[in-house]
Amino acid sequence: MSISMPMPASAATPARTARTLIEIDRLNLYYGDFHALKNVSLDIPERAVTAFIGPSGCGKSTLLRSLNRMNDLIPGTRIEGRIAIAGTDIYSPEVDVETLRKKVGMVFQQPNPFPKSIYDNVAYGPRLHGIRKKSRLDEIVESSLKAAALWDEVKDHLKRSALSLSGGQQQRLCIARALAVEPDILLMDEATSALDPISTLKIEELVQQLKDRYTIVMVTHNMHQAARVSNQTVFFLNGEVVESADTEQLFAGPSDSRTEDYISGRFG
Amino acid sequence: MNLLQGGNRHQIARRRKIDFCLHLLFAAATSVGVIALCALLIDIIIDGISRLQPGLFENFPSRRAERAGMKSAIVGSMYMLCIMLPISFVLGVGAAIWLEEYAGKNRFTRLIQLNISTLAGVPSIVYGILGLTLFVRLLMLQRSLLAGALTMTILVLPIIIVSAQEALRAVPKSRRDASYALGANRWQTVSRAVLPSALPGILTGVILAMSRAIGETAPLIMIGALTYVAFLPKHMLDQFTVMPIQIYNWLSRPQPEFHELAAAGIIVLLAMLLLMNFAAILLRNKFSKIS
Fold this sequence. Notes:
The complex is a heterodimer. By secondary structure, chain A is an alpha/beta fold. Chain A has one domain (17-263): P-loop containing nucleotide triphosphate hydrolases (Rossmann fold, 3-Layer(aba) Sandwich), CATH 3.40.50.300. Chain A is built from 11 helices and 10 strands. In chain A, the strands form 2 sheets. Chain A has a 6-stranded mixed sheet, sandwiched between helices. A 4-stranded antiparallel sheet of chain A has the order 2-1-4-5, covered by helices on one side. The longest helix of chain A is centred in the middle third of the chain and has 14 residues, at 134-147. Chain A is globular and about 55 Å long. Chain A starts with 8 loop residues before the first helix and ends in a 5-residue tail after the last helix. Chain B has 2 domains: 2-51; 54-290, Orthogonal Bundle (MetI-like fold). In chain B, 77% of the residues lie in helices and 0% in strands. Chain B contains 12 helices and no strands. Chain B starts with a helix and ends with a helix. The mean pLDDT of chain B is 87. Chain A binds chain B through residues 68, 70, 73, 75, 98-102, 105-106, 108, 110, 112-116, 124-125, 128-129, 161, 174, 177-178, 181, and chain B through 104-105, 172, 174-185, 188, 192-193, 196-197, 290-291. Chain B: Its main location: membrane. Chain B: GO terms for molecular function: phosphate transmembrane transporter activity. Chain B: Residues 74-279 form the ABC transmembrane type-1 domain. Chain B: It is a multi-pass membrane protein.
């Protein structure tokens, strides 16, 4: 598969030796009897894009969903080990899961706007957290839609149903909705896999803009995407981290033969 | 052209014949129900149309057919509906929310679920016995409007719970995920992301349950609702009657005039049921356009 897409300029710059924001230390996760994550240790740098790649069922989405504790919603999930964000263990009892999810936003595989107006979708999060004032909400909606590169397309019909937007617009609306609660981290779970190439490109460009302000962790099935947009790439196989390295380094010269087999298309 | 001539003509003709016969059979099966219903409606309308006059709505029951009406029964039915609607809505939808959104899926909740489904099929007279023991005797509400409304509430609760659960279950999980991922807690997610999408389905279920309730007779006779009420209930502990009881009373008299009155009463009751079902359909269509 060869895709000739303009390579966003900023992706070519090597990962800055940034501060680690998320530390994962010997994490084990079980769904009932199924051992989904095996002894995963990983550092995720601040204000950079980290991509998780690997075949289906390798645990990359599971790890992503552990970072904002969405796995808590799945009955029978058991977790051992430690995930610390800015030094705080997010599974410790004093951490409030609602506050955590406010700080760690998430965008899903399928665009999932609420069947409400565009405005109400973006204002949903701020309203949850107690913002009532119309003028303040207006500001947040505008700045979030601008940050998600959707403002120019929708500014004249904010009252229109979010479901009237195209798939790519809906996904950018979901990004705007996540940004509206001012997160530090943005998790993207195969956020472009349901979109057409042009919408995908728009979202990739958006990710490049957002990484200056947010720490982005994305799961992708598309290795070209990981190569194009990420600074760090992590390769998963059967619930284990096989290799984690600077994206250029990982794709140019993987140190593990399994990584090489996967990125050269020998399996997966 | 050989391509189109290879078919087995005999076999094709046979297949068409079978298709045609079954088509006839299914149409006949449908028409049996429709014809029976039409016959019933026509018969009732012929009997009752002459009695469908203002007097029917304005007069109280009377020994003399020309002066008899069902004012107290219509008002009684309305009052009962007004009392049971909010109670059964809160209890039924509340139970459905707990079962679907809060309770874990374990043996205990499965047992409750089984119970509710079973209760939905229990004959209504059994609820009458329960109402008699619990509300009329134990809580000493006597044969009051309140006791009747509470008995009916219990009768329709399983129907409301089951339909509300179905409506909640139909809301996609991705919508809940979206809400939780923004930092919503359980109630915020239920009230802002789930209920708005489930509401049309819930309301449809509630309206259909209400229309079942206004047609029920047996449990109210069981708890001792009066058949002859020549006054309007003034408060919730007053005695009362409802439309189906009045109809039942008229039908049990020997004079043909009262049978005509009963037919007129049935027309009024049917019209009300039709109106409620129509409202349910309107609601469903209105909301399904939004979500």
